[in-house]
Predict the structure.
Amino acid sequence: MNTEFWKMRTLQDGGFSFERKTIFTSQVLIKSNTDMVARSESRFLGNTMNRKAKKNAMLKEESKEEEEEVEEEEEEEAEEKEKEKEEQKKKKEEEEDGKKKKKRKKK
């Protein structure tokens, strides 16, 4: 229904037509209510989208942190392996030196 028509008729009658006035006011109220509902829905959608975006950002940050932790652990393991290899080399060298010294003493 066209609200402009009802506005004009109500103004022409000087607002005396009770039925038209009530219909017009009810239409205006319905329109304002639907506008309010639409605004609240858009706010709700905006809020949910913001929440989803924040949640996704947090998940990405957590996954990055987990990846960094895994990389750090791998680096630490690699360093430990290198240290073990160096220690084994030193032990072998010490054993060889000890054998050489024993041979020298025997001579």
About this structure: The chain has a mean pLDDT of 80. The chain has one domain: 3-106. Residues 3-106 form one domain.
